[in-house]
Amino acid sequence: MLSLHNAFIDAQPASQLAQRFQAVRAQTERLIEPLSAEDCQLQSMPDASPAKWHLAHVTWFFETFVLERFEPGFKPFDAGFRVLFNSYYNGVGDKYPRPRRGLISRPSLPEVLDYRRQVNARVLDVIARTDEADRMQLAQLITLGLQHEQQHQELLLTDIQHALSFNPQCPAYAGRWPLASTAPQPVRWHAYGGGLVQHGFDAGLDGDFAFDNETPRHPAYVAPFELASRLLTNGEMLGFIADGGYRRPELWLSMGWDWVQAGQHELPLYWQGEAENYRHFTLQGLQDVDPNTPACHLSYFEADALARWAGARLPTEFEWELAARLLPASGARPGNFVETGAFHPLPQQQASVDAPAQLLGDAWEWTQSNYNPYPGYRPWEGLVGEYNGKFMCNQFVLRGGSCATPQGHVRASYRNFFPPDAQWQFSGVRLARDIQG
Amino acid sequence: MLSLHNAFIDAQPASQLAQRFQAVRAQTERLIEPLSAEDCQLQSMPDASPAKWHLAHVTWFFETFVLERFEPGFKPFDAGFRVLFNSYYNGVGDKYPRPRRGLISRPSLPEVLDYRRQVNARVLDVIARTDEADRMQLAQLITLGLQHEQQHQELLLTDIQHALSFNPQCPAYAGRWPLASTAPQPVRWHAYGGGLVQHGFDAGLDGDFAFDNETPRHPAYVAPFELASRLLTNGEMLGFIADGGYRRPELWLSMGWDWVQAGQHELPLYWQGEAENYRHFTLQGLQDVDPNTPACHLSYFEADALARWAGARLPTEFEWELAARLLPASGARPGNFVETGAFHPLPQQQASVDAPAQLLGDAWEWTQSNYNPYPGYRPWEGLVGEYNGKFMCNQFVLRGGSCATPQGHVRASYRNFFPPDAQWQFSGVRLARDIQG
Amino acid sequence: MLSLHNAFIDAQPASQLAQRFQAVRAQTERLIEPLSAEDCQLQSMPDASPAKWHLAHVTWFFETFVLERFEPGFKPFDAGFRVLFNSYYNGVGDKYPRPRRGLISRPSLPEVLDYRRQVNARVLDVIARTDEADRMQLAQLITLGLQHEQQHQELLLTDIQHALSFNPQCPAYAGRWPLASTAPQPVRWHAYGGGLVQHGFDAGLDGDFAFDNETPRHPAYVAPFELASRLLTNGEMLGFIADGGYRRPELWLSMGWDWVQAGQHELPLYWQGEAENYRHFTLQGLQDVDPNTPACHLSYFEADALARWAGARLPTEFEWELAARLLPASGARPGNFVETGAFHPLPQQQASVDAPAQLLGDAWEWTQSNYNPYPGYRPWEGLVGEYNGKFMCNQFVLRGGSCATPQGHVRASYRNFFPPDAQWQFSGVRLARDIQG
Amino acid sequence: MLSLHNAFIDAQPASQLAQRFQAVRAQTERLIEPLSAEDCQLQSMPDASPAKWHLAHVTWFFETFVLERFEPGFKPFDAGFRVLFNSYYNGVGDKYPRPRRGLISRPSLPEVLDYRRQVNARVLDVIARTDEADRMQLAQLITLGLQHEQQHQELLLTDIQHALSFNPQCPAYAGRWPLASTAPQPVRWHAYGGGLVQHGFDAGLDGDFAFDNETPRHPAYVAPFELASRLLTNGEMLGFIADGGYRRPELWLSMGWDWVQAGQHELPLYWQGEAENYRHFTLQGLQDVDPNTPACHLSYFEADALARWAGARLPTEFEWELAARLLPASGARPGNFVETGAFHPLPQQQASVDAPAQLLGDAWEWTQSNYNPYPGYRPWEGLVGEYNGKFMCNQFVLRGGSCATPQGHVRASYRNFFPPDAQWQFSGVRLARDIQG
Fold first, then answer.
1. Which of A13, A57, A87, B236, by CA, is between 20 and 30 Å from B369?
2. Which residues form a coiled coil (chains A, B, C, D) (predicted)?
């Protein structure tokens, strides 16, 4: 039996669940409106998937984990889809090889949209008919499916940007550029006292859902530190480049330097042109590089080198989470998550005065924390146990969401993760530094 | 100035040229009728191209080599297409990287079809208006463009078969299977006397067009030999497999054996299943292997191993051409191409009695001849000089056309060529053997 | 100016320093006694180096970091060696490519031994002549050089084992097998209370030297846990294999399962043969697999899978260090490293009764801790700053030393590190598990 | 039973055979005199082998093909050598993987030299004792073994040059540079009439031994042609480079251009430095590039591009052989190899006046002929049948021997062969061109 025991989810009224289901599902289809069937077919690298595959895979998730369990007399929409749209669940059976997803022209986009429609109707039917006894289980699995679909909404955007970038005619996905320019201002530093702090998902603070990798809530010691008031910008990246940043091994991790040399990296992903005249490919097509917009599409290697060049370092995920918890808007109180008596007061407590900007929803912020299990971590039981845990190796945690993350999807305890060479996400840099005792 | 001086082409009446132009162009579009825009987007390996790319590239050929030269006030349909749909002409300028052709979702299929329509109209206009002085040049280039398009018609079929083969649902391209089964009969041997024989394109024998690689006509000595009465069949391939053919190094060229091991080849391309029950993927979908149909989709390595296993060898391209010339139906007479006095009569001349079957239009026949320039070979002048000559390295000649070759495209002097590991063409085997003196 | 400010090193009398220098240097030469010049030339993979290169590189370290600084009128032994025997110090200049170290036949082994002799004499001379003012600096750098040489002593052994393993005649390096078999006994569990614990190098506990990566000493929270009484053995590995361990994806990290499939791993490194009759290649030649000897030469992936199969997990490096500190023999007291008032007492304190065996010197123990900088970490200043810090990415910490680690080299705070696919070290597994609150 | 039926070898007196055996075997050992055991261990790429391996492999050849057959009560020197020193004879059994030959430190060089001594003594004993009935067979196999050893003598030199080239200290193998500079003189052209010409080994012309690939002698038609009076020189290569030869795709075969780009080739192998100051690594160490010395270490791609740049082409192997046969010194008469009545006289016959220089023994001359079987070719029977035939794919024929070829080893019918990207042989270019009829 499936049990998402680590996450706290209230049973919801059926009508509310149905409404959320419809809203998220509709949003996915809205994302492909600017795309043709041919666009939706593109796969530009093994790590990215065609938009059509995303549309089908998230539907497969509901079919496999919800309908198969809760629909009386379940029959699959198409028996072949079980293999074709399985991503990585060995427990479910065979999978179509990931690097070949772009070779699946059939089912066509219209057929996949039909698949979505039929599964939607059947899930709504299941929601309406499931009795009290199974309601909690059902709500948990549907909620998981919707969170999963939201993750794929973001991937759909990053993957289509990557795919379109190979077209020399630089087609635009949309008319507006998702990352906002801000008024130029120097980085300021926000100081935080450290101590033995509680980390991880807390239903009271973070809402009604979390992935298993955000649990269990647990104490970890954080030393006093400072966090930058904003993300690093393209302007600072221009300074790094002008200063020979891509040619100076002393700024890079050894593995990062190998990466620079093997890939002949001289500019961030999507950048082209010459100094004074750089342009970059965005979802809005080819654009001038704006110095006041957060730098993004950076690998961990680039983020780490940029931080070293700036005389600082990347934050740990616990430092980031501590700062995010202390946002005035979040209503959080230190008492909720700091062990009594263990908090180190700062000489001048600045954290409560104002808070760093851009913590949520601009660009994912690389942390220096490896994507590891929290102490006492247990993967979900059942087939969905493969969701997160098996990826805890050679990846780094990113925090805070990006301009491509769906509204309401991210929270202070949310842990995204990518290998250190991944560039195609909306990933940026916020600096941190130690407070010398 | 362009000059296809090696090939013999009469100036034709404009109306006849226009008619041929329209017929070939229409045939290409007929080939994609069973395909969706998504199907036409697929590229399954660097050596294969999307159907949409084929449609556009052959049009680019007319735009670049005909319109640009003959149309007054020429303006390109889209300046970006010059790079996007250039295959390999360094003289024309930059080329979009071949392995990424499948990443071009825009222009869309409808846009490419519109490109075709507009270029068609403009070429027809040029045909109607070009005066006598340029007529020959124009006819030559249009004829070349049409021959070129016919080559891509065949590639379009082999490439789409390859692409669809990655779909686990084994979609069929068409309802009929292109290679015909024949009544079972053992291989018989046709004997040919040798001598100093003329090879290569002869306008009197071969019609009004040849590629430069078929010229110049030249003498080469052929020793007496025998040629098999038919192509090898799937039945014989089954025998090879059952006899451990894919596991016995002594049957293979050294490089072929490396290929078997590196690719873990145990069956021909597109075959699957177990002995007694093999099926293979065809343009008609997944089918039982019919033992009386010619074996095809064989690499040179497989063809060579199969011949060695059968106690014979592959023919040379000159042996094949000699036999094809002696076909009763061709009306050829030895006097036309054998040096006087140099022909070695056979004790019992069998060649005139009947002729080998399946010489033309079933499966391309691998020869043991490397794709080399004929003595005195000169590539065409001008930009089209890159058409053939620069590929004369590490490729083998195939002769005779296949079930996917357009009607009327192939001739006795026609030289197709592929590297020895290429499997995805309709390539088969006809045996030859020496006549011991 | 060089400054190893993070490590605590007393100025030593010159005579004592000279004596230690001579002892360590002599030990390295003792290690190659069983080897021919040809053996010392072998490089079997980019990650491993020829024995001759080790001999020369550790000497280059003294020449570059000691003689160049302290020897009046310094002239290099051979100017080309600066490049040839630089491992990874970009600050020192060019480096000969690592994967090609096996292609350096000249200097010969006798020439390298002569290089050692001359540098030894010059270093001893420097030790004798350096005055008080520089004595501390000199002692620090020589101590670092000797610690460095000891690290290479272990690598020399693991690298030569790897190289000799490619010889089908399975030559033995030495007559004795370094890992000891022990009396069979089941794994028992030692329980530890957690709390906010001090980690990292402490001069009072750990002696007079540490690498920069062991510093600064800092608090980290450890939850109550249990640690296995001994390392896992070949007997347990046999159980894992017999239970289909190498064929069950659910036991592996996703990246580990990719590694199993890509490398077609079915047995641990150096194992061969069939069930009931496995043998493995050791420094002693080909040997039967003894079920009572610790399993070693395991990758992190294998260690992690083995732990999951056993229903447990790998320890963190902090759990391991806590247990190592509590060894009765070490004389450590909790008071030295546990924050006052923060220690969680266990219901039944077992840790003081007896201690886990094999914590030091049998096989390196994979931890689930990534090789990350400790909070507040600063690399050494100067050229030796490249020693450790730049490798802190995609590596895991191993603790405790192995049978190939030089006597006295390892300590409770010592952090070894390798990527998760590395197998050729003497790396094994000790299980840990949570204590459920 | 072994039978080298294609080659003509007289039974020789035992004493003469023994004398030749000793001379060739001793010469191999003379070649390694400048080398240390470590030098003899080097393998710098899969295509090259360690000198020690060459020493052992040629001995294995005698042990396997001579002793095993002719020595009563044969016992192998070391049973493991059968696998270790087998190059590519599947019929003999397993082979040690070629790319790992450099990992075999044991047997040591002294042990391999001892292996040579013992096998030498046993072969001499067999020669002395074999009776009349087997004498012919024995002489054939020993002769083959000696020819084989001479081939490896040349490879030993090219392989050690390649290996030493990776040493930044550029060690010299020997004190003299093997390719001679000549007085500067422009290329002149020697004209040859064509016709139906006999090619291949002729005992009367070529002596008492040939490899199977030189047989059978057979007619082939050659059109009138001209051949350059000498090899192209470094001076002409300098012109090619200065003229942008490595940057102009129109000079290259398509596959050659891919090779240039993939390998970032800008200079010939072993060249370094800047224009006006090029140096190249030779067996004599690093030397200035002498413009009057034949260019060598060229790939087929480079040779073909150089010829195209010079407005000429590479000769066919039949053109080369025809010219080599007509050397005044060779005493050949057209009557011996030109079909009666088929020779095309030239208006002004120049061939008899003087002959091209450097045809034998300076640098191997790339021909445009693929390494194909001659019509009627049969590999030798028995195990040595793997000697040549299975390599007839994707290789080009080189003719004439080089400065590294042993004295007396090469002849007019001799066919060497390498893939078109091979550079490390002493391979150069002689131009040819058509005579327009």
1. B236
2. none
